[in-house]
Amino acid sequence: MALINCIDCSKNISDKAHTCPECGCPIQHTLAEIKKAKEKKEKNKLAELDALKQFLYFTIGFMILYYLFIY
């Protein structure tokens, strides 16, 4: 069991609680949304790294071909 801050009132509450005892904000629903957002951010980060990797491969390949044809 961990203590987290309520998104609405910023009070410390248990991560196992279904709602905040102070303001009634639904916690489990909020935690699920946070988890989905983190997963989406991870996917975006991996996609950015893949795009960067493809760009680097293309650039290095182009440089090698350029070197072979010039010299």
Structure in words:
With 71 residues, the protein is mostly helical. The chain has one domain. It has one helix at residues 27-70; strands at residues 3-5, 12-14. The longest helix has 44 residues, at 27-70. The protein is rod-shaped, with a radius of gyration of 24 Å. The protein starts with a strand and ends with a helix. The model has no long low-confidence stretch (mean pLDDT 87).
* Estimated helix fraction: 55-70%
Estimate what percentage of residues fall within beta strands: 5-15%
Contiguous uncertain segments of 5+ residues:
none
End-to-end CA span: 66 Å
Could you state the order of secondary-structure elements as H and E? EEH
Shape: rod-shaped
Gyration radius, to the nearest Å? 24 Å
**Averaged pLDDT:** 87
Largest sheet: 2 strands, antiparallel
Q: Can you describe this structure in just a few lines?
A:
The protein is mainly alpha-helical and 71 residues long.
Give the secondary structure arrangement, pairings included:
Elements: E1 3-5, E2 12-14, H1 27-70
Antiparallel strand pairs: 1-2
